[in-house]
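Hey L., structure's done. Input below.
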Amino acid sequence: MHIHILGICGTFMGGLAALAREAGHKVTGCDAGVYPPMSDQLRALGIDLIEGFGAEQLALHPDVWVIGNVVSRARLADGSLRYPLMEAILETGARYTSGPQWLAEHVLHGRHVLAVAGTHGKTTTTSMLAWILEHAGLRPGFLVGGVPSNFGISARLGLGSCFVIEADEYDTAFFDKRSKFVHYRPRTAILNNLEFDHADIFDDLAAIERQFHHLLRTIPASGRVLVNGLEESLARVLASGCWSEVRSFGAAVSDFSAVGEPHGFDVLERGRKVARLEWDISGVHNQLNALAAIAAAQHVGVDPQGGVAALREFRSVKRRMEVRGTAGGVTVYDDFAHHPTAMRTTLDGLRRKLGGQQRILAVFEPRSNTMKLGAMKAQLPWALEQADLSFCHSGGLGWDAAEALAPLGNKAIVADSVDELVAQVLAAARPGDQVLCMSNGGFGDIHTKLLKALAERPAGGAP
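Output:
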């Protein structure tokens, strides 16, 4: 089969392309931003990439066009079509489908799907779960919205019956407004947490809860739902209907709970200690992620001791508290946190790890559609409480970042450009500081720019 993917350089669609190629299909694709590292990864797999969405690509005549959710029926300011290829596909009546639908039909069908859903922690928890199954010899397939360091790749078919997938609640395509995860038909599902997000497609939290309820409708009675016992929103989702076994984690009265600090804790199953995990991963959120992964793995035959043994060797995910380097005595991290709650938990994890001896400089950009809309700007001061100084890239926002951060007083600094932001951080940073960069995008390669500027700063140049 020849498939041509529109929006191939996105994390999900790039992973789908890799799976399709591994399965023996001919894969081509196009995107508006064909650039490294995804372009290099795809070309290394023998996948031809085309820049843009021109209608001339119709001459490729693939068996099916796979449409990413970046594609819409939008027009540009001058009235021209933003995606002329999509319009040509519709006009000619060519066969097309969404990425999640193609994945469900050609990869997931017949597999034991373990899906990880939630507002935060999906990528890390999916990576943990895939590694636990790998460590146990189950050789799972997986599709992760990042690159797990234990594997070095974001997707593979696997040789076992299990397939672990990051289950996103974002909509499927312009012609299918259901959440992506509704297509996956899991037998094991983790509901990690649930908050309001994606203000560009959901009106309120209740609308997202409804999609999670739709996910529960697809799980068989022999399946298992692992639910965070600390989340009221998830309790409402369960109350709306669940037809499968439910196991909880997180709360003291949950089926799976933890006693101890995040870097070293006992794992309890129904109040009885079954294992102890000591590792280098920080944060209460990662403690919860670990409990969820351990509980899910148990459903396919891996006992908690086996889960803990694997997690002792877990090496996190790229762009999750990833140290990019140290220069001039200042350490620079890269983290994907972009929702206020994720920012707060990431900062809290770093603060717990460091104690009170070193300063944390939080550098972030409100880049997600939800943040750009200003739907969560009031939560930013709360999210940044653990930082000693906060630096916000405000370029391109439709709201006043300085006003939103005013409750932080002189602990918050705003800049319109990445270069200005680098200069501000450089002026404030001193040896021993930890600079945490948070964004769900490339952030103008700020990490490299910061490290270069810090390395070139004259000795004694720090304040």
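The longest strand covers residues 272-278. Residues 110-311 form a domain with the UDP-N-acetylmuramoyl-L-alanine:D-glutamate ligase fold (CATH 3.40.1190.10).

-- N.
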